[in-house]
Amino acid sequence: MSGASTERTPVDVAVGVLVERDGTGREGRFLLTSRPEGKVYAGYWEFPGGKLEAGETVHEALARELWEELGIRIGESFAWQELVMDYPHARVRLHFRKVYDWTGEFQMREQQAMAWESLPVASHPVLPGTIPVLQWFAAERGFTGPTHRD
Ligand SMILES: Nc1nc2c([nH]c(=O)n2[C@H]2C[C@H](O)[C@@H](COP(=O)(O)OP(=O)(O)OP(=O)(O)O)O2)c(=O)[nH]1
């Protein structure tokens, strides 16, 4: 296989969509975090997560990343959407999982920032791979209009 095609093999990424729910189960705010300094797209807002390590399931990778980055322990996670994104730096397969239960105090272990958001999102700028997620939320919630600032 040529180097170029090997480079474009998607890297699997586990992404957590932490959502608050009220007593009736209705979904409310969701968590965005900013990408830390030193990473590609530093300062852009995204959903927390990271790449799978060898032998991990998506849930295991998500639980590990949220512990490492945010200091929280998650309960169950629920497969929601998948998306392949082609960036100049990488081709990634994003596995978005919704999470409703977690324990612990949020700690910004990578000096990132966090924001509990609703539509339209105030955090700016958002990562290209985040925009489809906002559109899925809009569809689920019957929200119309821009989901974020350009
Ligand atoms: N965490 C996360 N990554 C996303 C989202 N949308 C999106 O396109 N990506 C892309 C950006 C990166 O190319 C890739 C995630 O890789 P990363 O560099 O953040 O993962 P990592 O924490 O494992 O990083 P590292 O150990 O390799 O530094 O997925 C998203 O909502 N959350």
UniProtKB/TrEMBL annotation:
Keywords annotated in UniProt: DNA damage, DNA repair, DNA replication, Hydrolase, Magnesium, Metal-binding, Mutator protein
Family of this protein: Belongs to the Nudix hydrolase family.
Gene3D superfamilies (UniProt xref): Nucleoside Triphosphate Pyrophosphohydrolase
Name of this chain's protein: 8-oxo-dGTP diphosphatase
Reaction catalysis annotation: 8-oxo-GTP + H2O = 8-oxo-GMP + diphosphate + H(+); 8-oxo-dGTP + H2O = 8-oxo-dGMP + diphosphate + H(+)
Ranges for domain Nudix hydrolase: 10-139
Molecular functions (GO terms): 8-oxo-7,8-dihydrodeoxyguanosine triphosphate pyrophosphatase activity; 8-oxo-7,8-dihydroguanosine triphosphate pyrophosphatase activity; 8-oxo-dGDP phosphatase activity; 8-oxo-GDP phosphatase activity; metal ion binding
Organism: Ideonella dechloratans
Record-linked SUPFAM superfamilies: Nudix (SSF55811)
UniProt cross-references to InterPro entries, sorted A to Z: MutT-like, Nudix_hydrolase, NUDIX_hydrolase-like_dom_sf, NUDIX_hydrolase_CS, NUDIX_hydrolase_dom
Keyword Lipoprotein: no
EC number: 3.6.1.55
PANTHER family for this protein: 8-OXO-DGTP DIPHOSPHATASE, NUDIX HYDROLASE FAMILY PROTEIN
Record Pfam families: NUDIX
Claim: Metal-binding is one of the keywords in the record: yes
Cofactor requirements of the protein: Mg(2+)
GO BP term, pick one: DNA repair
